[in-house]
């Protein structure tokens, strides 16, 4: 049992040491980053002061460096680089298309595919037709349906008054009286 406790304590101690080392390295990297950025700021300020004392601006310095290195101004370099970038993009797009077409042709040679025939559009068309027919049949009112034989007398046009004194739950005389009061 003592060996197990000793080994587990050793593992814990190693874990603590590694954690402490990583934390220390992280803090050291942060300090180095801040120190480096501060030194860079000081060097930039010193260089700008030196250029100003000689009467050269930073833009003028960049122009002079570009002129000396390439023989062209910065504007000319920008135009040329943009033109070269567009040309390269066109060429890359053309090569991608050719590669895709070649891969497609190669795949066709290896395993020619049979043209698939899709059957589900026909099923959708049939279902839509059935749904339309059902909607039309259900939307018709009972008066619009064709009469069944023997249900109505042949000479009856419906112009005679109903035999009962109530129609649709109302007394027939009440409706005419209401129309006269308005």
List the helices and strands and how they pair.
Elements: H1 2-54, H2 58-70, H3 74-110, H4 120-139, E1 166-167, E2 170-171, H5 172-181
Antiparallel strand pairs: 1-2
Radius of gyration: 47 Å
Unreliable spans are none
Q: What coarse outline follows from CA principal-axis ratios?
A: extended
Structural class by helix and strand composition: mainly alpha
Strand content: under 5%
Largest sheet: 2 strands, antiparallel
The average pLDDT is 80
User: What kind of assembly state do the chains in view correspond to?
Assistant: single chain
Query: Which series of helices and strands comes N to C?
Result: HHHHEEH
With helices defined by DSSP (H or I, 4 residues minimum), what is the helix count? Answer: 5
Helix content: over 70%
Spatial order of the strands forming the largest sheet? 1-2
**Record field, number of beta strands:** 2
> Span from first to last CA?
108 Å
Biased composition (Polar residues): 157-168
Biased composition (Low complexity): 169-182
Region (Disordered): 1-40, 68-114, 136-182
Biased composition (Basic residues): 24-34, 82-97
Characterize the structure shown.
73% of the residues lie in helices and 2% in strands. The termini are far apart. The radius of gyration is 47 Å and the shape is extended. Strand 1 (166-167) and strand 2 (170-171) form a beta hairpin. It has helices at residues 2-54, 58-70, 74-110, 120-139, 172-181, and strands at 166-167, 170-171. The chain is built from five helices and two strands. With 182 residues, it is mainly alpha-helical. The protein has a domain at 1-55. The mean pLDDT is 80. A two-stranded antiparallel ribbon has the order 1-2.
């Amino acid at each position: 049992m003592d060996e197990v406790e000793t080994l587990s304590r050793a593992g814990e101690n190693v874990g603590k040491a590694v954690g402490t080392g990583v934390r220390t390295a992280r803090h050291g990297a942060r300090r180095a980053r801040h120190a480096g950025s501060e030194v860079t700021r000081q060097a930039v300020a010193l260089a700008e002061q030196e250029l100003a004392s000689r009467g050269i601006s930073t833009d003028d310095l960049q122009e002079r460096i570009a002129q000396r290195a390439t023989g062209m101004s910065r504007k000319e370099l920008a135009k040329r680089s943009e033109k070269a970038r567009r040309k390269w993009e066109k060429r890359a797009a053309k090569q991608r298309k050719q590669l895709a077409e070649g891969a497609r042709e190669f795949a066709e040679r290896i395993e020619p595919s049979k043209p698939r025939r899709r059957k589900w559009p026909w099923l959708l068309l049939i279902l839509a037709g059935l749904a339309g027919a059902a909607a039309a049949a259900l939307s018709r009112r009972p008066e619009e349906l064709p009469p069944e034989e023997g249900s109505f007398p042949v000479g009856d046009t419906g112009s005679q008054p109903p035999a009962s004194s109530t129609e649709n739950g109302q007394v027939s005389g009440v409706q005419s009286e209401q129309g006269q009061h308005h």
